[in-house]
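Lecture notes, unit on protein representations.

Consider one protein chain, 486 amino acids long.
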Amino acid sequence: MPTQIQRIFSDTVIYTIGSVFNRLLPFLLLPIYTLYFQPAEYGIFSLVYSFWFFVAVFYLYGMETSFQKFFIEAGSVDEKRSVFSSTLILIFCTSILFSSIIYLMSDFIAAKLTSDVGNAYLIRLLAFILVIDALYRFPMVLINSLQRSKLYSAINASAVVLNVAANIVMIVYYKMGIEAIFYSYLISYTFVFIISMAFSTRYFSLNINFQRVKGLLKFAQLFLYYGIFLISIDLIDRFILEYFKGSAEVGIYSACYRIGIVMNLVITGFKVAWTPFFLNLKDEEGNKEIFSKVFTYFCYGGLVVFLTFSLLADELVKINIAGYTLLNYQYWPGLVVIPYILIAYLFSGLYVNLNIASFFQNKIRYLIISSGIGSISNIILNLILIPRYSITGAAIATMLSYMIMFFVLYYFSQRIFRINYELKLIFRAVIITSVLYAINIFIPDFLKLSYIYSLLLEILSVIVLYVVLLGRKSLELAGTYRNRLP
């Protein structure tokens, strides 16, 4: 069991380092975006970006998860080739159809989305990006399903470098507008698709098995609803915020929301490693104990990340290097949302831990029910909180929605696939974290500590929590990770 637990977390480290570049990039490029674009401009980008991630759910219609499940369960190379080829050809055909519709309706979409038909060129550019965005995912999922974490991360890390370079060249040197961000994505996504396909040619042929497609779609349709609910929780607040407060407020909120990407990167790296990990342990004896331990250590790691960035984010974003700060001063009022966003992402990761029961017991409807309740809660909470509390209300609504979603799925999961989670240990960790957080919020003001002493108290609190929760275990996992490097 220790070896299995070490493997999932060492894989998570590897995937986190090089994975999910589309989420990492907005964080890496925040200094440039917030320096060269006004909040209203960045707000337009955020609205189009949010639209992108929403419609991407329909381009994929649950096929990522369906493909991974059928590919892993396929018994031979020929079966795997049939699954991969059928999926990729189907996605290509439907993506061309969807993008054609978006391209033709670009004026209407831009007017409704950004209140300015002049932004239609961004929608037309997005129509092209959405095709390659849908396609590149499947050879990458194939690589992930083969548990080739180093290759997966190397490809993504290379794309990060390429995308950052393209952004800098187009924005800093050629003085392009926010369209430069989308051109950079188009370049990097195309790169990932070409490279990942080069490693997937063994599993590809120009044949589509319609019987196989039928099975893939039957399983995938459930994840379409699930995906719509999840993406709405992440994105709906931007549109409600724009309606009540304007695009500048959306820009400030979205920029500060990106600081929470640190937690989301860890969680996304875990998600990438998690699905093939638990699917391959389905029939292994003692798997419930492994899953329980993973849940505990995930909580510990998430709490350390939360305390670190909720306390130090203000200082980090204001560090000035060669005239650049992580966030331009115009965006600093939004830093208040960071603790709420970190907690929201932590519960999102805990929710992913509970997916085991739904997969093992073929109860995908519980994922749909829980995410649906979370989505409805999110819309209601945003409509109540945003008019009164603006961006803080949006952040609180997101946090509460993920908490509700988690507790609903926990209830259902424990009924169909009970796992004895170490709740006492987790509760103790939450109490320690809460006490340290409260000390740093109230003590500096009460004792009128200077900036330097407040900063030292924050750093000391993070070190204390790290040592108490993760000290010994992190050394073991670091040893495992070093042994797996070439």
